[in-house]
Every structure is written in structure tokens, then in C-alpha cells.
Amino acid sequence: MKFGIYPGGRAGTMCSSPADQPAIRRLVDELAAGRPFVIREYVHYFGDEAAPWLDAARELEQLTMPDGWYTEGGRELDLVVSYLPGTADLAGWLAFLDQVIDRYGHLARYLQVTLEPNFPIPLIDGSSPGVLDALTRGIPYARAVLDSRGRHDVRIGFSVAEPAEWLGGDDAFWRHLAGVPEREFAAHLDYVGLALYPDAFSPVAPRGTPGDVASLTAHAVRHLRDRCLPLAHVLSTVPIHIVENGSPSGAPRTEDGQSQSVSDMIRTIVELETSANIALYELFSLRDADSGSPKPLGSLGLVTDGYRPKSAFTVYRDLIREAGLSATRQ
User: Fold this and answer.
1) What is the pTM of this model?
2) Residue 168 — very low, low, confident or very high, per pLDDT cuts 50/70/90?
């Protein structure tokens, strides 16, 4: 299993001060310790809509770091293309995919087409008109464009949020994919991503009891692999990527509590690596969006918005090294 992280300081509409690139270089190098490491980044399509909380045009100029950094030292770029127009706009979306591939296709190792289209909440793709067409038409379109440019090595997929029982479930989403012939969609997938935040937005059971962070993590992975993906004609040979996973440290939570959650989630995912065919784990995120905010999105980072490492940074670093040693012995 590979490991990675989102290095920026944005979560939803929250964003810390401008990135400190030397700090990011140093912290990511410490996490990777000379091993291959995946860097997750995001670009957004708003159509004709304005997004006052985000300068989307700048995302096509530069990501968090300079271009060359994403392919140096064994790093690989996992680029997410998010679909957020106010009205359905398939033509504009496909044209935007062209733009993104023109700009970043030579850097990317993974290209994620849409962000959590099963999750119908504001600022997430699942709430956007036409998102199902954006997903099912966008995947084969992006594959064809990349292949035409000789980028057969770029892996293409999409992500879903963890089982949304508390929102009434996402059965309608999977029923839609079940109705799309395999040759038109599933056959073009190289992976399916899963976003996991078991204790970020809802209370969880005490550690070691049913409904705790570890059991919720295992449930989400197995729910996706055993129930959802077969409905969408996705074979068991197509790997799962844990594309976002995190736990907040802000009040009433603590930094020690965040460390314990991060440890429990990652250890559970590593245990499921073989049986669930998990190929990649990416933590969200390196840096807090706003360490002083009481909102969970503000404190998901391994370091504060001023780049002070929390105890979870050491936990993640050590778990990556532990997993690497285990893989070497096998």
C-alpha cells in the first residue's frame, strides 16, 4: 500500500494563510522518508458561477507547490477534478477536463473525476445538477483524452463518501450506476476512492466497543467493497483508494484524541489491505485550515495552521515506516 497526504490548508470554505512551501517540503520529506509518496490536490469547475471563497482560475496556474515538486523524490500527484456548477453543464465540464489534462496531465499519476458524487450536501459534487452525467461521461472521456496523448500510465477513478446512512443512504446513486453498462463506465475505472471521517462530524462509541472509530472504518470499507461496487459492475480486481481520511483535534476534542483516532483508522485499513484490495491511503490533511475554529473542518491537519506538528504527525510518520518495514519483510 502506498501512502500520501493533501499538503494544502483548505477544507471547504475554510483556508489558512498562504502556504509555507519550505515547511511543506520539510514535513512531507519527513513523512515519506525516501519512499514513494502520493500528493493529493484539487481543482474545481464552477461553470459560469462565481465562488467568492475560492479563486478557481488560479488553480490552473499553480497548485500548492511548484510543478516539478510533484514528481521529484518518488512523489506522485493525485489530482481531483471537482464538478460544482450551479446548472448542469456537461459540455463545459468536458472542456474543463481538457484544460486540466492540458495543464497537469504530464504531472499526474492519478486523476479523480468528480468528488463524492454520492454525497448531496453543499459544496460537494453530489449536490450539483448533472453530476451523474459528469461522472459517467467524464471517466471515459478523460481516459480517451489521456490515451490520445500517450498518458496510458495515469490511473483514473472517482471517489465516494463513507456510507451515508445518516443522510438516508446513497442507494439511488448506486442504482444509477447499476443501470450504466459496464463497457460504458466501470470498464474504464482504475480505482474507486473512499473518503472516511468516522469521528469528525458525529459522536462515536468509546474505543474498543461496537460503533467506535475502528469498527466504523472497517464497516465503510466492507460496505463499499462488498455491497456497492458489485452493484456498479466494478470488479474486485479494481483497487480501493482511501483518498481522504482524518480526525479533528479542535475543542472539545484534543490532539491526543486525534492521534488515537488516526492510529486506529490507519491500522484498521492496513489490516484490510489484502482482503479489500486497498492500494493507497491518503490523509487529509497536512495543515489545519483554521486551528482556532470550533468547526471540525478547521483542525483536521497533522500540523497547526502555523505549521507546529501535533502528536498525530509523529503517529502518521511512524505508521508509514512501520508499514514499509512490514512490506519489506514479506
Assistant:
1) 0.97
2) confident
**Which pLDDT tens digit goes with each residue over 9-40?**
999 999 988 999 999 999 999 999 999 999 99
Spatial separation of the C-alpha atoms in residues 283 and 266, rounded to whole Å: 9
Question: 311-329 vs 21-32: helix axis angle to the nearest 10?
Answer: 40
Distances (CA, A) of 219 to 98, 214, 259: 37, 9, 21
Residue 275 DSSP class: T
Helical H segments across 60-129, by residue range: 90-104
Phi, psi of 5 (to 5 degrees): -165, 155
Q: List the one residue out of 177, 170, 75, 77 whose CA is nearest residue 126.
A: 170
Return the minimum-mean-pLDDT range out of 101-105, 201-205, 247-251, 266-270: 201-205
Going along the chain from its start, the domains and CATH numbers come out as: 2-329 (3.20.20.80)
The pLDDT mean for the chain works out to: 95
